[in-house]
Design goal:
By secondary structure, the chain is mainly α. It has two helices and no strands. The model has no long low-confidence stretch (mean pLDDT about 75).
Length: about 70
């Protein structure tokens, strides 16, 4: 009975580890990575745009302050 349970466990691991290497799963995995990469790229683009807008507003405020100070 012990040998049978080890054999079943070995078949389970072989099916779940080696089964993930077939072409359909690899394509799905790469597609998910591509979607995640696009979302990450969109997030950092949004962060950069917000920082750029903040810096532009800061530059405008500083230039107005310097204009009225002089």
């Amino acid at each position: 009975m012990k040998i049978n349970s080890d054999s079943n466990q070995e078949q389970y691991y072989r099916r779940n580890i080696l089964g993930k290497l077939n072409a359909a799963d690899c394509a799905s995995y790469s597609h998910n990575l591509f979607i995640e990469y696009k979302l990450q790229l969109f997030f950092w683009a949004a962060v950069c745009c917000c920082v750029l807008i903040f810096l532009i507003c800061l530059a405008i405020c500083i230039s107005i302050y310097v204009y009225f100070l002089s």
